[in-house]
């Protein structure tokens, strides 16, 4: 896993950014007071090749990325794309579509106002609403299907433009494409030894001093129900049911639907949201070779190659690049959406026609995984459809009827498919609880700064009573519940 962490200031603290909270967790003193501090396990991840040129291979044309040449147009004209669009290029067109929304969203965050989400899919927006900026010097008209298909092929996975436009906008923020004073540049990192290193450190800390019972491993939850006015009952397979004052579920939503929630006090919107919220498929195929032949033969260190062949993306390892034993494991395919659905069907089957004897000689082992067919995930990441952020997402950002069961995790984060440690706070909490919560857990970028209304009133931004977006959200939620607008 790779993490676009914010840059650090001169004191070694992470600057504001989407993954600031992950950075703060990595810096957390109690995870760094052992012989091998957690932060020392963080290593550079090369999102783009550090050395050598990765490959682009589309429509039977191959190009090795180089500083001294430009990529070909990969026969875009034969895909029905007019030359004026080809001259501008996919990247600029896609940025022109998405960036205005990213900027507006950042502006909302900076000014702490809320203007709502769009119900367009990315494809529908490009087809029926988007007009290219004058600076691109393209015809002032919506994009043709051929242009949209061409953009999707080079920019993302097959079928990805049918997801909500909002997803594309939020994704662009994760990569800090939009540029902003509050979302600066990112530094790509990963953990030496893999992402479970972070979990291992946290587990060791939580279970230190004989607290082994605090985390119960290998328990499959089979039902969650209201125990009364202020408790929840949780049953696990083969064990007694347990009573808790609150349940916070980070179980992936497709799996949550397989659990008995009939007595959990969910309302109609929440039940529909669990059924309806869309998840995206993904697969990875890792292959271990005898040597890092991509470095030996092509000079490639880190980065990724992209193609329209079924494997779509190849990820070169960043592990051990400066050591005597660089990783020899290649992610030979990383696919999403329709590409993952199709290639996933081949997992476990024999792969024929490996004609490259060199590769066969080098080959040691293969390991492929399809998150769609993993019963503990039933999909890779939330991948919201058009409008899903509007009603369905909102329904899951409030608790159940007795306010003791809360939805959390990757799907309820606005940064799907990333580890950002967004937090959750039940509505209707007194001011002191919120303050305590902020002190303990810090603030998310979504909730920083005072509301513009507050500043407009001429009050100090240092005032501890400053109205944050979080408080506005909680007040609205609470009002919705007490007025009966949120029904159970
Ligand atoms: C292919 C892929 C690549 C990714 N790459 C990156 C990356 O490079 N960088 C990044 O930041 N993020 C990445 N992510 C996203 C990241 O993994 C998620 O955002 C993160 O794991 C979400 O954490 P979570 O706790 O919400 O859910 P999960 O990590 O999915 O945890 C959910 C847990 O619920 C458990 N569970 C399921 N059913 C039950 C049940 N009935 N009872 C009890 N437990 C149950 C599961 O076993 C699982 O442990 C990637 C995700 C995928 C799928």
TrEMBL record:
SUPFAM superfamilies cross-referenced by the UniProt entry: FAD-linked reductases, C-terminal domain, FAD/NAD(P)-binding domain
Segments forming domain Amine oxidase: 178-416
GO biological process, alphabetically ordered: amino acid catabolic process
Alphabetical list of Pfam families matching this protein: Amino_oxidase
Coiled-coil ranges (or none): none
One MF term in the entry's GO annotations: L-amino-acid oxidase activity
Protein name: Flavin-containing amine oxidoreductase-domain containing protein
Source lineage: Eukaryota, Fungi, Dikarya, Basidiomycota, Agaricomycotina
């Amino acid at each position: 896993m790779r993490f676009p962490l914010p840059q650090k200031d001169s004191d070694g603290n992470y600057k504001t950014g989407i993954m600031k909270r992950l950075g703060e967790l990595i810096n957390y003193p109690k995870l760094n007071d052992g012989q091998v501090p957690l932060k020392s396990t963080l290593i550079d991840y090369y999102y783009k090749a550090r050395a050598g040129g990765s490959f682009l291979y589309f429509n039977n044309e191959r190009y090795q990325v180089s500083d001294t040449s430009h990529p070909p147009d990969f026969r875009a004209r034969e895909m029905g794309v007019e030359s004026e669009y080809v001259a501008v290029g996919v990247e600029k067109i896609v940025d022109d579509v998405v960036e205005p929304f990213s900027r507006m969203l950042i502006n909302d965050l900076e000014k702490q106002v809320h203007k709502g989400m769009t119900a367009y899919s990315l494809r529908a927006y490009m087809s029926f609403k988007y007009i290219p900026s004058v600076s691109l010097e393209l015809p002032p008209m919506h994009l043709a299907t051929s242009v949209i298909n061409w953009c999707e092929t080079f920019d993302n996975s097959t079928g990805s433009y049918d997801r909500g436009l909002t997803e594309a906008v939020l994704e662009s923020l994760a990569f800090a494409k939009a540029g902003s004073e509050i979302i600066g540049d990112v530094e790509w990192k990963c953990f030496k030894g893999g992402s479970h290193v972070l979990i291992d450190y946290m587990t060791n800390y939580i279970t230190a001093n004989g607290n082994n019972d605090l985390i119960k491993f290998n328990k499959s939850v089979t039902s969650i129900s209201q125990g009364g006015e202020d408790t929840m009952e949780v049953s696990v397979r083969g064990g007694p049911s347990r009573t808790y004052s609150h349940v916070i579920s980070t179980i992936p939503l497709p799996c949550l639907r397989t659990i008995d929630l009939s007595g959990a006090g969910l309302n109609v919107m929440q039940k529909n949201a669990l059924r309806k919220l869309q998840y995206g498929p993904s697969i990875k195929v890792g292959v271990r070779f005898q040597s890092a032949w991509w470095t030996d033969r092509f000079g490639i260190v880190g980065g990724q190659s992209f193609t329209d062949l079924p494997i779509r993306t190849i990820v070169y390892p960043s592990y051990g690049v400066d050591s005597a034993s660089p990783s020899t494991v290649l992610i030979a395919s990383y696919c999403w959406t329709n590409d993952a659905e199709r290639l996933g069907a081949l997992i476990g089957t024999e792969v024929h026609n490996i004609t490259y004897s060199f590769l066969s000689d080098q080959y040691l082992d293969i390991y492929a995984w399809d998150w769609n067919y993993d019963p503990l995930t039933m999909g890779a990441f939330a991948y919201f459809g058009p409008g899903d952020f509007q009603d369905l997402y909102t329904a899951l950002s409030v608790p159940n009827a007795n306010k003791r069961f809360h939805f959390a995790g990757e799907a309820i984060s606005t940064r799907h498919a990333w580890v950002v440690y967004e937090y959750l706070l039940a509505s209707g909490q007194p001011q002191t609880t919120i303050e305590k919560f902020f002190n303990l857990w810090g603030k998310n970028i979504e909730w920083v700064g005072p509301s513009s209304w507050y500043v407009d009133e001429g009050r100090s931004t240092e005032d501890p009573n400053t109205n944050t977006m979080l408080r506005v959200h909680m007040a609205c939620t609470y009002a919705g519940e007490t007025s009966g607008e949120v029904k159970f």
